[in-house]
Amino acid sequence: MADGISDDIDALFDATPPGVSVRVARALSAVSAQARDLLGAGLESVTGRPVQVADVAIKAATYSEVETEFASLPHMGFEVRVAFSPSESHLLGALVQLPDLGTLLAIETGEAALADADFARAQTATVGTSVRELLDFISITLFAGALAGLEVTLSDLRIGQIEYTMGIVSDVARNAPSVRVDLSLMADGKYAGVITLVVPEPFLDRLADAAAPEDEVEPVEPTPLRRGPSSARPGSGPSAGNDDVDVHPVRFPPLPEIRGMPAGGVPRSLDLIMDVSMRVTVELGRSSMTVEDVLSLGPGSVVELNKLAGEPVDVLVNEQLIARGEVVVVDENFGVRVTEIVSPRRRAHAIGGM
To answer: What residues does each domain of the chain span?
Structure first.
């Protein structure tokens, strides 16, 4: 059965869905085979049971169409950030209906239970931890080769408020056209829900560029430079004044490999920088405010952050997230008890990009 599903999905990506450009379809197909298998493996690592992508539906969709559909559905919305570099990132939207989320993670997501604000915050924190683990898994396993270096992180999540989720995604994408991808999941041979992704086309265009196979780029041979009369230097030897001398770029032999040095030329051992001091920051949350709002702040003002009360705080090194934890008091001093560590690759990047 699994082979049949794979063949069907491969056939889907070979075709161009209605309303989707060939370039966008190419970007989707570039990672489809890996994404299908690795998403299932990642979900299995989070849920503890076999999960597979049983079907994929792709079509062009507007943010307002998705907003209208999910406005009446109990769901959780996620903003997922994909960074190609520290200075370039894109935001995707992910939507999962609450019953499907409860089935996948084996948690209570009933409307009556979530009416309790404290319970809803606890369940949201549980989902957030699971999604971050899944995205870390995807960053490490999916984005390799031509896509190496891409980072996928959870920007924010919330129960409902579809207009807010779609508003943020469309604003970051500057209202560029988007593609909707519905991933139907199966667990233990039974239907387990649908994950709906809203993917702006600028991200897919960028992905197509990054995933372009090297063999699609025609190699350019260096063109011999022919010295003309004007380039001959008087007294330059026997070749002076000779118009038929070929001038080629210098080709140096490859440098010998240095033992103990990886291919990238950067030593992987951290021993040399173990005594380097680094700035560690604990972040409770963030907020965007206008200049007018900032100037109006005064004693007693309340600044709303982008995190729910009780959510873990972020531990940053050099502005890079390395861990999450809870605030504690130690001998009348505040501290943070670490409850979650991000992937080793991201921690190494935080202390120097090694």
So the answer is: 2-213, 271-350
